Amino acid sequence: MIPNVISERGLVLLGCGKMGSALLSGWLDQGLPASSVWILDPKPTDWVLNLGVHVNEMLPDNPAIMLVAVKPQAMEEALPRLQKWGSATTVFISVAAGIKIAEFEEILGRSTPIVRAMPNTPAAVGQGITALIGNDRVTEKDLVDAEQLLMAVGQTVLLDNEGQMDAVTGLSGSGPAYVFHLIEALAQAGKKQGLPADMAMKLAQATVAGAGALAAQSNETAEKLRVNVTSPNGTTQAGLKILMHPKTGLQSLINRTVKAATKRSQDLSNG
């Protein structure tokens, strides 16, 4: 449900690439009037141009939300354009990876309400998850409004502190790529066991998608679901003996994977 204040005062979306477009589609599907949306983008798509939203027009004087969805490397040029709306009642939400709240405060003013968010690419199909954290100028209502906006593309979680954002990046931000590689690996393994390549890929895709949906919808833990599938001395147990090996198994590999991505996020955030 889109908060009324956003429909009334308007929302500005800076950058309408893949993530911006996914968010915009979700907002419009949930009833946000196209006339309440202003898009700033140097290369708007035909889809955006035909929605009835304001594209590269003069912005409202006091929009409820300014959502920044440009790539991090474009931030230095883009943010100064929005300075006049800083230190006021407009809430800024950033989905730009690696840009800390302090960097926004330096440009927009330390009294500006700023929410930093990290969505992931399944937002494109409404199945994303977004982690959020606000600065000390963000009210509880501001945070609720930000959550409702980002729920248009999936689930949300609230962080305890901004330092957790690097781990979020390593886990759910980069995580879809790990899952896509798991699909590749499963399909390749099936092919090695004699399946046609296209059949192996179809089986791998459906298995990962179905298991993920079951885990999300079940009241049981992932551990319990795993145990439910595993018959004593059966085929699954034989496979898990390899996958769950304490030294060479998946957990050790995933620990190193997420740690490496988290460290890289920290390095990028620290310049």
Largest sheet: 8 strands, mixed
Residues in helices, as a percent range: 40-55%
CATH class of the largest domain: Alpha Beta
Tally the structural domains. 2
Q: What's the CATH H-level homologous superfamily of the largest domain?
A: NAD(P)-binding Rossmann-like Domain
Beta-strand segment tally: 8
**H and E order:** HEHEHEEHEHEEHEHHHHHH
Beta-strand percentage range: 5-15%
Rg of Cα set: 21 Å
CATH topology of the largest domain: Rossmann fold
Uncertain ranges: none
Explain what this protein looks like in three dimensions.
The chain folds into two domains: 4-162, NAD(P)-binding Rossmann-like Domain (Rossmann fold); 175-269, ProC C-terminal domain-like fold (Orthogonal Bundle), CATH 1.10.3730.10. Helix 7 (165-173) crosses helix 12. The protein has helices at 4-9, 18-29, 46-49, 75-78, 101-108, 140-150, 165-173, 175-192, 197-217, 222-229, 235-243, 250-269; strands spanning 11-14, 37-40, 54-55, 65-68, 91-94, 114-118, 128-134, 154-158. Helix content is 48%, strand content 13%. It has an eight-stranded mixed β-sheet with strand order 3-2-1-4-5-6-7-8, sandwiched between helices. The chain has 271 residues and is an alpha/beta fold. The protein has twelve helices and eight strands.
